[in-house]
Specification:
This protein is an alpha+beta fold. The protein has 3 helices and 4 strands; from the N terminus they run H-E-E-H-E-E-H. Helix content is 33%, strand content 17%. A 4-stranded antiparallel beta sheet has the order 1-2-3-4. The longest helix has 19 residues. The protein is elongated.
């Protein structure tokens, strides 16, 4: 039985339901974009790491420690994945269907893209156009 009293015939269905509820709570409480699979609107972080495109990608920009704590409660699985330094910065949660979560940070993506283009003799510049308040 789920936390809200809804009953399921399989334990994994109940766990999936509760996981979805927690993720939905995060998405409604914290600024986010591109929830979903990459080929259906999700954005895989360009950070040079392997990412399974069958996973789901959630990009969040927490505004305070309360939102950092909510991210850790939802995705941390007992570990701290997000820190005070992530406030006002985009972070990505990659969610696998077996309940594994990984995180990436926007600044890691910027560093990777800059290094990539530098290898080919180019310089790139990033400019934020929608500043987080």
């Amino acid at each position: 039985m789920a936390f809200d009293g809804k009953e399921f015939d399989e334990k994994y269905k109940c766990e999936d339901y509760e996981k979805g509820f927690k993720i939905e709570k995060c998405c409604s409480a914290i600024e986010f974009i591109d929830e979903g699979r990459p080929y259906y609107g999700g954005t895989v972080p360009p950070d040079g790491e392997y990412h399974n495109t069958d996973n789901r990608f959630y990009w969040f920009r927490p505004k305070n420690m309360e939102e950092i704590n909510l991210l850790n409660e939802t995705f941390g699985q007992g570990e701290e994945l997000f820190f005070e330094s992530d406030i006002h910065n985009w972070v990505c949660v990659e969610s696998a269907y077996d309940d594994d979560f990984w995180c990436s940070r926007f600044d890691w993506c910027v560093e990777y893209v800059e290094r990539f283009f530098k290898n080919f003799g180019y310089e790139v510049e990033f400019k934020e156009v929608n500043k987080c308040e």
